[in-house]
Amino acid sequence: MTWRRRRIPLIAGATVISGLLMAASAVAAVSHAGSASRTTTPAAHPVTSHGVTVTAAATAARVVAGTVTTLSATVTSTTRRGVVLDLEVYDAAGHRVLQRSWPASLTAGRAITRSTSWAVPRKAGVYRVAVGTFGGAWTPLLVWSNRAADVSVVAGPASTTSTTSTTSAPTGTGASAPTHFGTLSPDAAPPSQEQCAAWVRALPVPTENKAVNRTANATVGAPLPGATGTQARITGAFTGTTEQILRWAACKWGVDEDIVKAQAAVESWWHMDNKGDWGTDATRCAPGHGLGVDGTAGQCPESWGLLQIRYPYNTSAFPHAITSTAFNADYAYAQFRACYLGEWTWLNTVEHTGTYAAGDAWGCLGVWFSGRWHDAGAEGYITKVKSYLAERIWTTATFQQP
Q: Among 10, 56, 233, 273, which residue's CB has the most CB atoms within a 10 Å radius?
């Protein structure tokens, strides 16, 4: 089943996005609801529920703002099971500034520890580390420790790096290339597109698993005429394999690369030739793609490419959103970043659940689908992305189409 997004009027000062949602899986709500309750605990104190124990730790309890530190999460189970281990960091106001999750196969009695680097925000204060474990498709919630550790951030020099990694590889220039790009906090400036390109290309080239994209992958985009602010950073100036392009966009816009890969799988199964949201209104057709041009009599696709950018609400993205994989991803995650920075205040003036504010990465992913803040459509979409993320769908055999 394909869910058609609502047709949302363009709101002044904002770009409203939509695209294709693939079949929705019957997974439970994504807001950490479940049979296990969230338990507030002293720092570094293990929490156990449903036979699963979690704890978290930081390399240092006191760090300098703008630096990088390492956080770790540990999980142990009394039985063999597949889980998702989730680590999150919150500032003093309760805003989430980092989330990292890992699928894990647990063996009874054997602890598994996962670590991630954290680009520490420039804002001083006490940051709370939370950790929890979910079933393999993010449901049910098995155990949650709301305060597994505290990290005190003190004033210091501005950050010299703003990306996260689990390990590093040499770039040949004395710098190091992160092997995993994580979600940056709103006050952390993402790296330049040139730095991201260098980091991505410093690692071995992944095998192309979507041969259909080769032409679009080798095609660069162009800046948006007259763009300002966040939108002025959009260029599509990168070429590579599909996975390299997704990593480049994740680095450039400060989004966890695995979330990017999962979302692109939901949207198009990583196909740049994917077309969606077919309609019969000729005014909503992209230039050169009027009714009947793309193989369906009397209809045209409104949504295009890897991230299913929808023409009626994003006219400035065309034609490059159709022809360039890098531009398609670059444009999509520029919109994510604008939402994540708190620029889309109009979300509080239309139908919404809760209050829109900066720093909610999952909320902004939901907006990509529904154009609304945490409404039912957005929540269903978030659930689907989390399901693909937990499965790491892009690594499965059925996903490979070299």
A: 56
Q: Which of 102, 97, 50 is nearest to 73 (CA)?
A: 102
Residue 91 sits at φ, ψ, to 5 deg, of -85, -175
DSSP secondary structure string, 80-99? Answer: -EEEEEEEEEE-TTS-EEEE
Q: Which residues pair with 133 in a beta bridge?
A: 85, 143
Q: At what angle do helices 325-340 and 242-253 cross, to 10 degrees?
A: 30
Question: Is the preceding peptide bond at 319 cis, omega within 30 degrees of 0?
Answer: yes
Look at the block and give the residue holding tokens 């949650």.
144
The upper half-sphere exposure of residue 124, i.e. CA atoms within 13 Å in the direction of its Cβ, equals 6
Strand partners, 49: 52
User: 209 with 401: CB under 8 angstroms?
Assistant: yes
Contact (Cβ atoms closer than 8 angstroms) between residue 87 and residue 71: yes
Paired sense of beta strands 52-58 and 47-49, if any:
antiparallel
Instruction: Please report where in the chains the tokens 């309750």 appear, as a residue.
Output: 37
| Residue 180 contacts residue 172 (beta carbons within 8 Å) | no
Number of residues assigned to the chain: 402
CA–CA distance, 350 with 330 (Å, rounded to integer): 27
Interatomic CA distance for residues 299 and 113, integer angstroms: 52
Phi and psi torsions of 392, nearest 5°: 50, 60
DSSP class of residue 243 equals: H
Task: For 269-328, write each residue's pLDDT tens digit.
Answer: 999 999 999 999 999 999 999 999 999 999 999 999 999 999 999 999 999 999 999 999
E strands, 120-252, in order: 125-135, 141-154, 168-170, 176-178
The one-letter code for the residue type at 382 is I
Q: Which residue reads 């989430």 in tokens?
A: 96
pLDDT digits (tens, 9 = 90+) for 41-77: 344 579 999 999 999 999 888 988 878 788 999 999 9
Average pLDDT estimate for 113-133: 90
What letter does residue 230 receive in the DSSP assignment? G
All residues at 6 or more sequence positions from 302 whose CB lies less than 8 Å from its CB, including other chains: 276, 277, 278, 279, 284, 285, 286, 310, 311, 312
d(Cα 299, Cα 277) in Å, to the nearest integer? 10
Outline where DSSP puts E strands in 256-299: 275-279
